[in-house]
Amino acid sequence: MMADGIKNGVLAVQTLRNNIMASTLLASTAITLSSLIGILVGSSGSGGAAAAIIYGDDSRMGSSVKYFAILVCFLIAFLFNVQSIRYYSHVSFLINVPAGKPGEGHSQWYVSQALNRASYFWSLGLRAFYFSFPLFLWTFGPIPMFLCCCIMIFTLYFLDIATTSYADTSLFLSLPRTVEKGCSPINQGSGKV
User: Fold this and answer.
1) What is the mean pLDDT of residues 161-167?
2) Per-residue H/E/C for the chain
3) Among 8, 17, 67, 86, which one has the highest count of C-beta atoms within 10 angstroms of its own C-beta?
């Protein structure tokens, strides 16, 4: 974007806007759920109907600890998403700065670092939401929490681990297989080495 703003400007700005909106939605959801948990903790009494579906510790102290753990998880998700919004907004301003001389590249490096930080905080905020699922099921007992943890580990394993390398994709298969002697595939037709 910084090298050719006319061609890629709208795409870059729209992508950053979409990321800011996604982070705002997650931050708003986290703070809303934190407020609801606070109301739930403040108004919870000893209900006989709720105790029938809960397996395990259903004491007032145990419930408070469980709700507090969920509350902390949502507050951490909120803080990470706010940091993500901060960095995405910063990048949206920096991306319009003209690039320096071809050899310098300091501004491009700084923008890419800020974009990576924004993506990292967004990922951490989303992980805090993922972590809240087992904590929520912990309110119903240790068995639902354990099952959710097993499913989450299995799911995150496949989301985080790349099973194929980029060299195996069809993108690299489209490169020419024969190369002139002394030429790379990039400057093959020019005759220059």
Assistant:
1) 64
2) CCCCHHHHHHHHHHHHHHHHHHHHHHHHHHHHHHHHHHHHHHHCCCCHHHHHHCCCCCCHHHHHHHHHHHHHHHHHHHHHHHHHHHHHHHHHHHCCCCCCCCCCCHHHHHHHHHHHHHHHHHHHHHHHHHHHHHHHHHCCCHHHHHHHHHHHHHHHHHHHCCCCCHHHCHHHHCCCCCCCCCCCCCCHHHCCC
3) 67
